[in-house]
Each structure stands twice: as structure tokens, then as C-alpha cells.
Amino acid sequence: MTSRFTELAVDCHDPERLAVFWCEVLDFKVIDRAEGLVEIGSWMPTVEEVRARQMAPTVQFIQVPEDKAVKNRLHLDVSPIDGSTEEEVTRLLGLGATRADVGQGSDRSWVVMADPEGNEFCVLRTLAPHHAIHD
């Protein structure tokens, strides 16, 4: 017997706003909507595909009344695929992200950021072939 990692749930005030932000970050699409919930993903999961093999999880933004209070215990890491890490940081700042300080120090190979509701995430080294040596 086994389970699959199928969804990552993110509590938030404005599911639509975060869905738009993360769709732009990850090149995902909205795949489902319900009252107080928006689900995004890179694919439309079917039971058969999920049962057959582990697939990329979807992300669900679920509306809750309470504010984010402390540093996330779980966060997303993203890796740029067609530009440098700094170029991706600049792009994400333009989408509404902010730089975040969670005590990481200054000499790290990643950049800690926060989405429009303050959820921390990291931008890691680039995976772009022509930038990989420089970042």
C-alpha cells in the first residue's frame, strides 16, 4: 500500500490573487475553482495517471480568515529554467513578490522571497544551460 503526493494546500486570504501570481511564476493553469478555493497545475490529473506513477502535484489556494503569523514551516523552491537566478528574481519582483529575510544570511546561493500574501519561497540556482556555471 502507498500514497501519492497529489496536492499542496496553501491557506490564504485571496485564492484568486495567489493563483494568478503562482500561475505566472510556474507557467501553470487554473484547473479547478470552487467557493474559496482555486487549484492550479501543470496538467489535469486523472485517477489513472496518478495511480500509475508519481506526477507533479497541483497547488490549491484555500481561503481562510486568519493571517499568516510566523515563518512558513514548509515552502516551495523554484529554479529558473531560461535565465539567471537574478533575472528570475527581478521578474518575480515585477509580479508582486518581495525579498524576505528569514535569517538566511547574505552568502547563500539562493534568494528567499515572499509571494503577495507573505508566504516564503526560495529561488535556487538556474537550470538554464548557458547560465549554470555563472550562478
Describe the overall structure.
It is a single chain. This protein is α/β, with parallel strands linked by helices and 135 residues long. The protein folds into two domains: 7-63, Signal recognition particle alu RNA binding heterodimer, srp9/1, CATH 3.30.720; 76-123, no CATH class. The protein is built from three helices and eight strands, in the order βαββαββαβββ. It has helices at 15-26, 47-52, 85-95, and strands at 7-12, 29-34, 37-41, 58-63, 76-78, 98-99, 111-114, 120-123. Strands 1-4-3-2 form a four-stranded mixed sheet, covered by helices on one side. Strands 5-8-7-6 form a four-stranded mixed sheet, with helices on one face. The protein is globular, with a radius of gyration of 16 Å.
| Number of helices in the DSSP assignment | 3
Helix content: 10-25%
Strand order of the largest sheet: 1-4-3-2
What is the N-to-C order of secondary-structure elements (H for helix, E for strand)? Answer: EHEEHEEHEEE
What would CATH call the architecture of the largest domain?
2-Layer Sandwich
Give the CA-CA distance, first to last residue.
Answer: 42 Å
- Whole-number count of domains: 2
